[in-house]
Write a structure and sequence with these properties.
By secondary structure, the chain is α+β, with helices and mostly antiparallel strands. The protein is built from 19 helices and 21 strands. It is about 30% helix and about 20% strand. It comes from Salimicrobium album.
C-alpha cells in the first residue's frame, strides 16, 4: 500500500466492499450551519485523550482464531500484539519479539521474546502462548478459516493437522523456554516475519481461553488483551469501546485513553454527528467529498485493498470464460472511481494492487508498473465476448444475481454495476442483492452467490497474498475456479523458487496474466482509497499495509 502519510491521517473503519466492505446534508465550510459545525473541535476529546470513530459493521467475533473480517482485524489488532507490529514506515517494529534468527536453509525461525510483556490480567506473555494459539488455529474442532489457510503449507505439519491426520501437538512450533519461540517451516518462506503481524498469529492465554469456553471473545467481559488497548464495552449492533491497557509492555508510549467506536452505516448520519461534535471521524462518500474537500479536517489515503467481481463458476453462465470477460470489459472503471466513488480510489487494471510490492531486480519498480495493465473498459470487445457466450450457451437472455454490502457507498456502486452491465450487454438482467457484511462473509465462505462484489486486503507484504487465493479448492477460492496450470505456477513460485526472488516474481506475473487475461476468473474493479473527516487535532494515526487497516498505538489528541 502507499505509505505516504498525511498529517493527522487515519482511515475510517471500513469493510470490505469494503475492505472489507465495501462498502447527506452536512453543510460545507462556506455555507452557514455547515461552516459552524465543521469548525468545531468536536467532542471533549481534546483534553482527555478520548476519541470517537465510526465502523460500518458489527464485530462478528474478537477471537483471533475465528476472525475473517476487516473490522475485527482492526480492533483485535489494537487489543492483541503478536511477534511484531508495523511502524509508520511500514517496517516491522518490536512487538512481543525483540528480534529473530533464521537458519541457513530458511526453514527454522527462532524468535527472542521480551520478558516484560503481560496480559491485561497480569499473566506474563510467553512462548507457550504462541504455541497454544497456533496449535488451536489449525485444530479442526476450532473451526478456524484462516488457521489452515495461513499456516497450512507454511508451518510444518499444519496441513496434516487441519486435515485430522496428525495431532495439534505435532505442529512445527516449540517453546524452547518461556521467552524463546521456535518455528519450523515446511519450506523457506522469505516473508514469514511479515505474516506474523496477521491476527491469526496472535498469542492466546490458554488458561483464560479454556475457562471462558464457548463464550471466549463474544462479549467485552470475555476478552483478554495483551496489546496497547483492551475492550471494556461491546454493545452488539451499536458499537464498542477500547481503553488504554495499563499492563501493556509499552504503555508509556500510548497516549490515547479511550476510543469509542459507533456502528454507523449511513454516511449522512456520520457527517451530521461529526458536525454536531458527537464524532471525531466520519467517512465520506461521493455525495460529500466535493463539499468538504477544502475542510481542514478532510484527508485521503490510498490502500492496497482491491475491489472486484468474484464469479461463481459452478453457475452455467459464469462458468463460461467469454461471459466473464464480457462483464469485466463492460465496466467503465474510470467513471466508477471519479464520479460514483469520488473518494480517491483508482481503477484497478490487475489483481495485485499498485504501490504494494516492488519487483526484485527491477531497481525498485512497482509490481503493477512492471506487469502493466491486464484489464480495461472496452464495450465493443465486451459485446463480442458476450455474443459468443450466449451462442455457446444457447441463450438469448440471462438473469444473474449480484451480491454486495448494504452500506450506502456500496449501494451506489452496486447500482452503477447494474447499469453498466445491463446497458452494455444486451440480454443481461442483473438482480442486486444487498446484505449486511456479516451475512455477505458467510455467503462468500459457503459459496452461496453468483457474482459477488468482493474485496481483498493483503495479509502480508508479498504478491502471494493475492495470487495464492485461487488455488484449486483453496480456502478463499469459494467460487469453483480450478486451473492446473495456475496451480503449478503458484506452487512453483513458493517451492523451488522460494529463494530465487527474481524468477519467483516472473512466475507470479505469468500466473496473474493467466488468472486475469486468459481465464477472467475474477474482474478487478478498483483500488480503494478513503476520504474522511478527521479532527485536525488528532495526530499519529497511520495506515498499514497488513494487519489492522491503521494503527492507533502512537495516536494522540493535541
Amino acid at each position: 500500500m502507499s505509505r505516504k502519510l498525511f498529517l493527522g491521517l487515519i482511515l475510517s473503519i471500513t469493510l470490505l466492499f469494503i475492505l472489507a466492505a465495501c462498502g447527506g446534508n452536512g453543510g460545507s465550510e462556506s455555507s452557514g450551519e455547515g461552516s459552524e459545525g465543521d469548525s468545531s473541535e468536536g467532542s471533549d476529546s481534546g483534553s482527555d485523550q478520548s476519541i470517537s470513530f465510526t465502523a460500518k459493521s458489527e464485530l462478528p467475533s474478537m477471537d483471533p482464531s475465528l476472525i475473517t473480517d476487516s473490522v475485527a482485524f482492526q480492533w483485535a489488532g489494537e487489543t492483541y500484539e503478536g511477534l511484531y507490529r508495523l511502524d509508520e514506515n511500514g517496517e516491522l517494529a518490536e512487538g512481543i519479539a525483540k528480534d529473530h534468527e533464521v537458519s541457513e536453509d530458511g526453514t527454522t525461525w527462532t524468535f527472542n521474546l521480551r520478558e516484560d510483556a503481560q496480559w491485561e490480567n497480569g499473566d506474563p506473555v510467553t512462548a507457550n502462548d504462541f504455541v497454544y494459539a497456533w496449535q488451536r488455529a489449525v485444530t479442526p474442532d476450532t473451526g478456524s478459516e484462516y488457521g489452515p489457510y495461513f499456516l497450512g503449507g507454511v508451518v510444518k505439519n499444519a496441513s496434516a493437522i487441519a486435515d485430522g491426520e496428525m495431532k495439534p501437538e505435532e505442529l512445527g512450533v516449540k517453546a524452547v523456554d518461556d521467552y524463546t519461540f521456535e518455528v519450523n517451516l515446511e519450506q523457506p518462506v522469505p516473508y514469514f516475519d511479515s505474516m506474523t503481524v496477521f491476527i491469526t498469529f496472535m498469542p492466546l492465554n490458554k488458561s483464560y481461553v479454556e475457562e471462558q469456553g464457548d463464550s471466549f471473545s463474544t462479549e467485552a467481559d470475555n476478552t483478554l488483551a495483551n496489546g496497547p488497548f483492551k475492550m471494556t464495552e461491546w454493545s452488539h449492533g451499536e458499537g464498542w469501546k477500547v481503553v488504554k491497557n495499563e499492563n501493556y509492555w509499552d504503555a508509556d508510549t500510548v497516549e490515547l485513553e479511550e476510543i469509542d467506536v459507533k456502528v454507523i452505516k449511513e454516511t449522512s448520519t456520520a457527517v451530521n454527528l461529526f458536525q454536531s461534535g458527537e464524532l471525531d471521524q466520519a467517512e465520506l462518500n461521493a455525495e460529500f467529498v466535493d463539499e468538504y474537500r477544502s475542510s481542514e479536517h478532510f484527508n485521503v489515503v490510498e490502500n492496497p485493498y482491491l475491489y472486484f467481481f468474484k464469479f461463481n463458476q459452478e453457475h452455467e453462465v459464469l462458468g463460461n470464460a467469454d461471459a466473464r470477460k464480457a462483464m469485466s470489459m463492460a465496466i467503465d472503471r474510470k467513471s466508477l472511481t471519479d464520479v460514483i466513488l469520488n473518494d480517491g480510489s483508482v481503477p484497478a487494471n490487475g489483481y495485485v494492487p499498485s504501490n504494494f510490492v516492488t519487483v526484485p531486480g527491477s531497481d525498485g519498480k512497482d509490481f503493477r508498473e512492471v506487469q502493466g495493465p491486464l484489464v480495461g473498459h472496452d464495450v465493443e470487445k465486451a459485446k463480442e465476448h458476450w455474443d459468443k457466450a450466449l451462442e455457446a450457451l444457447g441463450k438469448d437472455s440471462v438473469t444473474l444475481e449480484l451480491m454486495g454490502d448494504d452500506t450506502d457507498s456500496s449501494q451506489n456502486a452496486m447500482a452503477y454495476y447494474k447499469e453498466q452491465l445491463e446497458t452494455n450487454l444486451e440480454g443481461l438482467s442483473v438482480k442486486v442483492v444487498e446484505v449486511p457484511f456479516k451475512e455477505r462473509v458467510r455467503r462468500d465462505q459457503e459459496g452461496e452467490f453468483e457474482i459477488e462484489a468482493a474485496t481483498w486486503g493483503p495479509d502480508y507484504a508479498d504478491a502471494n497474498t493475492y495470487l495464492n487465493m485461487y488455488l484449486t479448492d483453496g480456502q478463499n477460492n469459494n467460487m469453483n475456479y480450478s486451473s492446473e496450470e495456475y496451480d503449478s505456477l503458484i506452487n512453483k513460485a513458493n517451492t523451488e523458487l522460494a529463494q530465487k526472488p527474481e524468477k519467483r516474481y516472473e512466475t507470479f506475473m505469468e500466473a496473474e496474466r493467466l488468472l486475469i487475461e486468459e481465464d477472467a476468473a475474477v474482474a478487478p474493479l478498483y483500488q480503494d482509497a478513503k476520504s474522511q473527516l478527521l479532527r485536525s487535532n488528532i495526530e499519529g494515526v497511520f495506515p498499514t499495509a497488513t494487519g489492522p487497516n491503521f494503527e492507533f498505538k502512537w495516536a494522540s489528541v493535541k
